[in-house]
Design goal:
The chain has about 775 residues and is an alpha+beta fold. The chain is about 45% helix and about 20% strand.
Length: about 775
């Protein structure tokens, strides 16, 4: 360990007993020479370090012994959680002097000589010619064209101990393949990513040609070319490659993705904690920068699109006019700026290693970001991108130490300065002419500011919080890739009962509008499930005219809300007002019949007894408020009780129970049935009678004549009865339920001040109709 590398002045992590031995190659060399006197070990040189503060330290070395070079890694754990004893039960491949694995108990150090690895069992088999033949025979069982890689030689390309091994397989005639060996969890995740990408037809990842579940091996076709990190160092580098790459990335971000792994965490506290041990002189500066970074990250909306997760130049292979992406292990749903931030952060890392000049890096960054913004669904504010570059530079802060750079302390200090520069740029406000990718403050429209019931008020406050909504959407609607909430509107409020909201959202594929339904007494799970069943049956239930319910999407228990997709069209009420309601009336009758014969079973039921009880409660409340109507109301209710006697023992099916013209959206030839919150088992004729009564009330309100739309109501009833088989008892039931519903409008008009003038007309008309019909029946 030299003074030049800064390790001699670095405080030891006292919880890791082998700390000083692993970082001081002279001390470890002496211990190895003492433990293996039969082996002529001449030198030891470290080239990779992996450090988890207070937990573990792993270091990779090149060892010179008996005139040969050997690869090995050594690790030491926290003394309170030592795992060294577990390795004694394992078998190891002898490498030199009959040794492949070694424990130095006094120093709490465990050493593995390649090809031995504590977690990746496949490496040992791959380095043995016969075992490799057998392993690859099983790996290639799905076929790999005409190439048989069982006889291939193997060359290591990349190796991260206990995590991943990448190698090139080469046949004598020159054909190649890439082999990747993973731990089991990473293997399953990567394989699932491959299967998704294949299903989506994404072609810029190398095709899979073999797999072995037991050893976590994936085999890919070899792609010729040169890494982008090598291409852009040349003076004749064609920057149109960067433009094409940015276009690919923007296209990749627009696609759908089913989340398999969570995106990499920021883990800023752990990074700062690591700096406290590695570079204590820089710890205060890092702490201040992290505090500023956290503040700026809070200003960035939690967008979710399909992201690569580890996107930088070393992952890109250039060959003629083609670009290939080499790694797909970390694909997840995350902010699109994370991929851009990673790409630019690695550009700056290349500057610190003198692989690029600052001018080259700035030029490449500008070309790449501009090309991405031109192709992206929405432009990302530049200050957010600068902040995300700073974030990903922080995630690279330990790279100088990890890669055993000679001047790693100086490089770390320069990285902090670079982070500060990008944070400063990220803190600047956008100019007025800069297009915004998403509104900082979504539009909130709430005309119901005086909500007195505490439950609904609390639920509404949550439902109007865009940040909270984004967390819910990402949790319950991950496949929709919702990027931002653009607007929230409260459409309806029924005191003590429910709220109706509309969310206007931006997703990776465009705008999306959702309707949210909140119920005061709890999440309406049964309504959601009924809608689900009807939506799933839409092809079976639909006719030539076509109908369906809006697509139910998810339930959000935290807010007692469920969401459905907003549907296009106009309410049937509007068509009636415009005189164009005739066109859809038979389709509405057919839709009603389809609902009633859908076969859906609901626990809740509603019969004539419940209908009369509701009517009595509402009418008598009006009588209390208006004593001069009390006698007529009492007489009306008594007559309705008599008139409804034939409704007992009627058939019971799934009914809407709140069926009226506002509940139907008409979009050209398509009908949408809304609001099945009261759906239950009941008499199908209740829905038709209720629908007719609402049309009559609308006719009275708009035309001054209860029978202004009589041709429509008669046609509706006639077509429905044709579908049911012209049963006389059904026609009678529709007439009775029509009168019960019309009587209920007496109470409804009193609740709505703008309709209260209709109450005496409705009371008179309903009383006359029931008296006339009772006389006829007698």
């Amino acid at each position: 360990m030299t003074h030049a590398d800064g390790l001699s002045t670095m405080p030891a992590d006292q919880r890791i007993k082998g700390w000083k031995y692993l970082l001081d190659t002279r001390l470890l060399l002496r211990e190895l020479q003492h433990a293996l006197p039969q082996v002529g070990i001449q030198s030891l040189q470290k080239h990779y370090i992996r450090y988890k503060p207070g937990t573990s330290l792993l270091v990779c070395y090149q060892m010179q012994a008996d005139g040969c070079r050997y690869s090995l890694y050594a690790k030491s754990y926290n003394t309170e959680h030592s795992k060294l004893s577990n390795s004694e039960k394992k078998s190891f491949e002898a490498v030199i002097g009959g040794i492949g694995h070694l424990i130095l108990p006094r120093q709490n150090i465990e050493i593995y000589l390649s090809p031995n690895d504590a977690r990746l069992r496949s490496i040992r088999r791959l380095q043995n010619t016969h075992r490799r033949y057998v392993l690859l025979k099983r790996t290639l069982r799905n076929g790999s064209g005409n190439k048989d890689f069982r006889f291939a030689s193997i060359r290591t390309l990349q190796y991260k101990p206990e995590r991943r091994y990448v190698a090139c397989l080469t046949l004598p005639e020159g054909h190649k393949a890439v082999l990747k060996a993973y731990r089991q969890r990473a293997y399953k995740q990567t394989l699932a990513h491959i299967q998704q990408l294949d299903a989506l037809g994404i072609s810029y990842f190398p095709p899979l040609i073999g797999q072995h579940k037991g050893y976590g091996i994936l085999l890919f076709e070899w792609r010729e070319g040169e890494l982008l990190t090598e291409c852009w160092q040349r003076s004749d580098f064609d920057t149109s490659i960067l433009e094409k790459l940015a276009q690919q990335l923007a296209s990749f971000h627009r696609g759908t993705w089913r989340q398999i792994i969570a995106p990499r965490k920021n883990d800023l506290p752990a990074i700062v904690q690591g700096m406290k041990h590695l570079t204590p002189q820089l710890h205060d500066s890092a702490t201040r920068l992290v505090a500023q970074l956290k503040l700026q990250l809070r200003q960035i909306p939690d967008l979710k699109v399909r992201c690569h997760g580890d996107f930088y130049a070393k992952q890109i292979l250039c060959h003629e006019n083609n670009l290939y992406w080499l790694d797909l292990d970390d694909i997840s749903l995350a902010h699109p700026g994370r991929d851009i931030g990673t790409f630019v952060a690695h550009l700056q890392w290349d500057v610190l290693r003198h692989r690029l000049t600052p001018q080259q890096a700035a030029h490449y960054e500008q070309i790449f970001i501009r090309a991405y913004q031109r192709q992206a669904t929405q432009k990302l504010p530049s200050q957010h991108l600068y902040t995300l570059v700073a974030l990903h530079l922080f995630q690279l802060i330990h790279h100088p130490f990890r890669n055993c750079e000679t001047q790693w302390v100086g490089q770390t200090e320069k990285m902090l300065a670079c982070i500060g520069k990008y944070l400063q740029q990220g803190a600047h406000r956008e100019s007025k002419n800069t297009p915004q990718a998403y509104p900082r403050h979504p539009r909130i429209h709430n005309p119901f500011t005086q909500i007195k019931d505490a439950t609904l008020h609390s639920l509404l406050q949550q439902a109007l919080d865009p940040a909270q909504c984004m967390r819910w959407f990402n949790k319950y609607l991950p496949d929709h890739h919702i990027q931002v909430v653009e607007a929230i509107s409260v459409l309806r409020y029924k005191p003590g009962k429910r709220l109706l909201l509309r969310y206007e959202l931006m997703t990776a594929s465009g705008k999306l509008a959702l309707i949210g339904k909140i119920r005061a007494k709890g999440l309406h799970r049964s309504a959601f499930r009924i809608n689900q069943q009807l939506f799933e049956q839409r092809h079976t239930l639909s006719t030539d005219k076509g109908w369906q319910v809006p697509q139910p999407l998810c339930m959000i228990p935290e807010c007692q809300m469920w969401l459905q997709r907003q549907v296009p069209g106009r309410e049937y009420t509007q068509l009636l007002s415009e005189g164009t309601g005739e066109a859809a009336v038979e389709a509405i009758a057919t839709m009603s019949y389809s609902l009633h014969h859908s076969g859906i079973q609901v626990k809740k039921s509603h019969g004539v007894a419940q209908e009369l009880a509701v009517l009595q409660q509402q009418l008598y409340k009006v009588a209390e408020q208006h004593p001069h109507w009390r006698a007529d109301i009492h007489k009306l209710y008594t007559l309705l009780q008599q008139y409804s006697l034939p409704l007992r023992n009627r058939p019971s099916r799934c009914i809407h129970r709140d069926y009226y013209p506002d509940q139907i959206m008409v979009d050209n030839q398509k009908l949408y049935l809304l609001d099945l919150d009261l759906a239950c088992m009941g008499d199908p004729c209740l829905d038709i009678g209720n629908f007719i009564a609402h049309i009559q009330e609308q006719a009275l309100r708009e035309k001054g004549d209860l029978h202004a739309y009589q041709s429509i109501t008669e046609r509706l009833s006639r077509h429905y009865l044709q579908l049911t088989g012209q049963q006389p008892q059904d026609a009678e039931a529709i007439d009775i339920y029509q009168l019960l519903s019309l009587a209920r409008h007496i109470a409804i008009t009193q609740r709505l001040p703008e309709r209260s003038h209709l109450t005496p007309m409705l009371l008179t008309a309903t009383l006359e109709q029931v008296q006339t019909r009772l006389c006829v029946t007698r």
